[in-house]
Amino acid sequence: MEIIKTENLDKVYEDNGIPVQALKNVNFSVRKGDFTVLAGPSGSGKTTLLNLIGALDSPTAGKIFFEENDISKKKPRELSSLRLSKLGFIFQAYNLIPVLTAIENIEFAMMLTGISEKERRQRALDVMEELGIRELADKRPNEMSGGQQQRVAVARAIVNNPMVILADEPTANLDSKTGAVLLDIMERMNKEKNITFVFSSHDPQVIERGKRLVMLHDGMIESEKEQ
Question: Which CATH architecture best describes the domain 33-56+76-226?
């Protein structure tokens, strides 16, 4: 079943007044249970595509469908609601809130959806236990290693039970061993909970683990294969 689908997607940015075409006529889909990697050299358009299907940016032309609803022209409030309820995000820079503890960072998205304080705390503790980071509950980001911060970011991404998790270069700031542990966790979630993952990455170990590999070059899909 297709969760996300793009039709003839274009994205043009302005760079010092000069138009730069980041994506050209991209037709792409995400199916339930996918573990897909968008790969390609720097500037190929993989992060741009991830941002568009994650409703973090809007296309210059073309359409984006989420569960068969065209989201390409929806209002910011509607897109914000979609991101909160259906999508989880993992970023290269972790994007944890520095003044909050690990458990408060994980609770933050749930707070925005109006979940009670008691339920937020219990769900956050449950997911930290599952990811083996329960002991980090009261630590702030500057008291954690990069790998620990990224695990907290994963916990934050999955705690609202999203349909799709979008991960932009999630291993880029990690050593290979820590990156492998993180990928083990995400593979397990994909297999056991059928959580759909889409990665943007040029890390060979991420590319190797992908069940589906989509190669981009100069803003276009160059190839696509099951692995």
Answer: 3-Layer(aba) Sandwich (3.40)
